Amino acid sequence: MRYLLLTILLSLIFISCDNELHLTENKKETSIVFGFLNPADTAQYIRVERAFVDESISALEIAQIPDSIYYENLDVKLVRLADNRVFQLEEVDGNTEGYIKEDGAFATAPNTVYKILTDSLDFVADGEEIFELRIKRSESDTTITAQTIIVEQPHLTKPKDASSLAFTAISDTKIRWLEKESLNIYDVKVYVHIKQQNFDTGGGFVDTTLVWDLANNVRDKEVVIPYQNFFTFLKSELVEDENIRRRFTSLDVELFGAGEELENYVNVLQANLGITSSQEIPTYTNMSDGLGIFSSRNVATSRDVRISPITLDSLFEGSITKSLNFE
Q: Which of 107, 206, 292, 313 would you label with 84, given CA atoms 20 to 30 Å apart?
């Protein structure tokens, strides 16, 4: 028996590991759905694909045939339950939207997703609205549904815009936020902005941004950062080259918060991934039919965050980053 496996990569959205959804019912086509509504995004995307078993064709062959993994004439809608207003999503190619599908077992083009502009949805600010996803594969088929509450925007208390963070041996650094009732689980991402000048190629300083995935699946109200982690991150991302000099510019800190459905998904995975477990990834879905997850998330950003003078001194002269030629 050869099974077609559809891998949903949540690192793009939220989860720090890759997870596979396994189809185990013989010769039954299964819909795979993945979508997070985010009021902070300019557009919302829902991915709908299909998986099935075929005893005569290799799963790897099937995965390379777009007609085998995508539906034709799929009807995808969002419904705001408070007023039953219906919003129609448009089929688009994610590759042309800036979401390039990575090379692998599955066909990379087209990269079919379903889109609606955020402005069209008229999200209520910090309102806990319930949206229902409705997917119709054919006129004679049942409608696949799932619901989610639109979560509130997180609230970062440290750092704030244009404030400062210190990474020193005196104490660990903390990123903190307020508790919000609709937010169950968090990710923290830091964007480190620097300028680099290469004497070999000539020219002036060039802006560079390094993305630091600081923490995933946090259920507390803060993240504690050992001071040396900032410097070891820079060391891991930048090459040592005597012809390159660098200047630190600023940090942006992003706090992503997500709702109950994602927390449940993570809980199910973690429940069976301990050292005494079978190491088989269990299935979680909140879809009425098929497999997948439909939830919501929101994001808060503190911009133009500086580092303290002591941190700058360590960046210039400290044992970890001295060879990176910051000035």
A: 292
Task: Please state the pTM of the whole predicted model.
Answer: 0.78
Dihedral (C-alpha) 199, 202, 205, 211: value to the nearest 10 degrees? -70
Give SS3 for 62: helix
Residue tagged 């979401």 (tokens): 99
The string of pLDDT tens digits covering residues 92-130 is: 998 888 876 654 434 455 888 999 999 999 888 766 799
Q: What residues make up the domain containing 189?
A: 156-257+302-324
Between CA 224 and CA 230, with CA 226 as vertex, the angle to 5 degrees is 110
24 plus 126 within the same structural domain: yes
Buried b (16+ CB within 10 A) or exposed e, 91-119: bbebeeeeeebeeeebbeeebbbbbbeee
Query: Looking at the structure, do residues 76 and 136 belong to the same domain, yes or no?
Result: yes
Residues 145 and 167 in one domain: no
Largest CA distance in the chain: 70
Q: Express each pLDDT in 193-208 by its tens digit.
A: 999 999 888 889 999 9
Report the C-alpha gap between 114 and 93 in whole angstroms.
8
Q: What is the pLDDT of residue 11?
A: 36
Q: Give the CA angle between residues 88, 92, 98 to the nearest 5°.
A: 125
Q: In the predicted model, is pLDDT for residue 276 greater than 70?
A: no
Residue 1 lies in a domain: no
Clarify whether residues 16 and 34 are in a common domain.
yes
CB 30 within 8 A of CB 290: yes
